Amino acid sequence: TVLPKAWRQRLKEQGVTIGRLQEVHRLTAHDGTKKILLSTDDNETIEAVGIPTEKRLTICLSSQIGCSMGCIFCATGKGGYQRSLAVHEIMTQIISLREAFDRRPSHVVFMGMGEPLLNIESVLDAIHCLNHDLGISQRRITLSTVGVKNTLPKLVELAQKRLGSVQFTLAISLHAPNQTLREKLVPSARAYPISLLLKDCRSYFELTGRRVSFEYILLGNLNDQIHHAEQLASLINGLHSHVNLIPYNPIEGENFQRPSQSQIVLFKSILESRGISATVRASRGLDKDAACGQLRRQYLQTKFK
Ligand code: SAH
Ligand code: SF4
To answer: Is 305 helix (H, G, I), strand (E, B) or coil?
Structure first.
C-alpha cells in the first residue's frame, strides 16, 4: 500500500501479483519459536521459522521447495525436490514472520528447506534486500550449504558483484570426518570429495577473510564416537573455522539416535582439546517437529490423506 493506487491497478492489469503469500499453517512452541507454512501461487508450500531470544530474533529461511541432495537424516531431503524459490518468495517468509512476532528480525540463516547454492542468484538478491530494505547487515546472515561442486568460487565472485563484498557467514554441512561415512549420510558428496570441498573452503577464507563454520549433525553411534571427533579435528586442523554440533532431531520414518548429553559434551571437548572451537546448537521448542522440512511434510501428508 506504499505504492500509489493507480500504479498498483496498472501493475495488476499487466498481470503482476502484488502482496504476500498466504499463511496456511502456524505452530508456536512453549519457548516462542514459531514455524509457518506459506502457500505459493502454484500451490506449493514453503516452511520458515522464527526463533526468539531476549536479544535476538533469528529467522530461518528456505531457498527451495524440497531438496535434491537427499541427506538421509533430513525430512526435506526425503520429500524430493520441487523447485527453487524466487526472491519475493524468500523475502515474503521474513516479512510474514516479522509480522507474526511484531518484532524486527536481527539475524537470518538460510537453513530451511533447500540447497542455497543451487539457487545462488535469488539467494544473493534476497541478501541484498535483507541489507538494503530490512537493514540486516551481512554479518548477521548465515548461508548454510552441504556443498555443490564448482559453486563456492562462483559464489564469491557473484556475491562480490551483487553485494560489493562478502561479509556473510558460510556454514558448510560437513557431518562426517571422512569421505566414506560422508557419502553414506550425504549422497551428493559422491560428486564432491571432502578433499576438494575443504580446498574450496581454504580459498573461500583467502578470498573473503571470513572464517568458515562447519555444521556436524550428531547421529548416535554413527558419527559421534571419540575416533570420529579425533578424525574431524585432524581433518580441519589449520583451517580458520568453527564447528557447530547439531544433535539429531528425530524425523518420521527413520531410526537414527540422538546422542546422550554426555556423548555430545565429550565430542565437543575432544575438538576443543585439539584447538578447534566448537559449540552445540541449543535445542529449541517444536522439538517434535523441529527438523528442517518436517512441518511441510506433515502438512502435505494430512492434506492428501
Ligand atoms: N541444504 C543446506 C541448508 C538447509 S539444511 C544444508 O544442508 O546445509 C540446514 C541444516 O539442517 C543442515 O546443517 C542440516 O544438517 C540440518 N538438519 C537437517 N535435518 C536435520 C535433523 N533431522 N536433525 C538436525 N539437523 C538437521
Ligand atoms: Fe537438502 Fe540440506 Fe536437507 Fe541435505 S540437509 S537434504 S542439503 S536441505
So the answer is: coil
Distance CA 205, CA 190 (A): 24
Residues 39, 300 contacting (CB under 8 angstroms): no
223 lines ligand 2 (CB under 6 A): no
Q: Which of 278, 270, 273 is nearest to 216 (CA)?
A: 278
pLDDT tens-digit readout, 200-222: 999 999 999 999 999 999 999 99
Is residue 23 a contact partner of residue 36, using CB atoms and an 8 Å limit?
yes
- Tell me if residue 292 is catalytic: yes
pLDDT band at 283 (very low <50, low <70, confident <90, very high): confident
Give the global pTM.
0.94
The residue to which cell 555430545 is assigned: 264
| Residues making up the chain, counted from first to last | 305
Q: If you take atom 19 of ligand 1, which residue's CA is the nearest one?
A: 74
Going from the Cα of 111 to the center of ligand 1, the distance in angstroms, rounded, reads 7
Nearest-atom index, ligand 2, CA of 74: 3
Q: What's the distance, Cα to Cα, between the start and end of the chain in Å? A: 39
Measured CA distances, 10 to 1, 2, 13, 41, 116 (Å): 14, 15, 5, 20, 34
**Residue 65 Cα to ligand 2 middle (Å):** 11
CB of residue 146 inside a 6 A radius of ligand 2: yes
Residue in this structure with the C-alpha cell 529461511, named with its chain if needed: 61
Position of cell 589449520?
238
217 lines ligand 1 (CB under 6 A): yes
Torsion angle, alpha carbons of 201, 207, 211, 212, to 10: -30
Residue 205 amino acid letter: F
Compute the C-alpha angle 31/262/181, nearest 5°: 95
